[in-house]
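Hi again,

Forgot to attach this to my earlier email, sorry! This is the prediction with 6-diazenyl-5-OXO-L-norleucine bound. I've pasted everything inline since the attachment limit keeps bouncing my files.
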Amino acid sequence: MDDRINTLQETLEEITLTLRARKDRGKPADYIPPLAHVSPDHFGIAVALTDNRTFMAGEADLPFSIQSISKVFTLTLALGMHGDALWRRVGREPSGDAFNSIVLLEQEKGIPRNPFINPGALVVADALLARARAPRETIGEILRFLRFIADDDTISADPAVARAEKATGFRNAALANYLHSWGNLRNDPDHVLGVYFHHCAVTMSCLQLARAGLYLANGGRNPATGRSVVSPERARRINALMMTCGHYDGSGDFAYRVGLPGKSGVGGGILAVVPGVASIAVWSPGLNANGNSHLGAEALEMLSHRMGWSVF
Ligand code: DON
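Structure tokens for the complex follow:
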């Protein structure tokens, strides 16, 4: 690793100080009370290196709602279960639309553009349900997987967030029913939605998230536990999807500014991967117009620039 690693802690502290002072912080998601009540003033960042050192600044220990970041992990699990057959049911192209858009689904006959937009994540949730007798078992399997990759048994889903997602999730219900009408859901849409709402409701801190993402930075193997999660080829491909689709209609801008595979969530978190080097998690609840963390993206832009971490 190059010399800039020696000043990584100072760099993280400087970024945190700079961004904490910002007035323009974006607006936290307000479609459910548990997210609307989160203060936009929070800021945390954690970096887990493939040599097992971790660095953090700000509120990197405070759990937040990881929301759509969970889609990276459900995709990983579903690929493990179904392999490339999954790609017959979901594409690998950016959609150029909002995460919850239904527009392309009619034109493309019920095959979602990618696994990170909501219809794609619902197909992935349906694929995960394949082996289970009840949604509860699939939710348990997702949580066990998260605990395994983060090497942390305390990770769980917030039931209040899951309930609120269900209470307000009319658009997701429309997407699930529409997918079912095209024959691209094999399970009861309500069961699929139950799994989806629960994985969106997982809470993790930046530190837990950075550790969970390390397999993507380290050729598919968690360097802390020595355990293999996916093959090196699959890790590369998941990173490619994060780069092209991880920020929805803001993916091009994120790639341009940060130059790293990344996945955002409406809780204000972003997971970013520096292949071979590090997994980074940042949290700032205020969102931009595309529903991605406003200051989170800026923090990653500053960090990748200072460290020379762009993949390009
Ligand atoms: O589907 C939803 O509305 C949310 N639970 C998850 C959305 C999300 O995080 C989108 N990403 N930025």
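The chain has two domains: 2-67+202-307, 68-200. Residues 135-150 form the longest helix (16 residues).

That should be everything now.

G.
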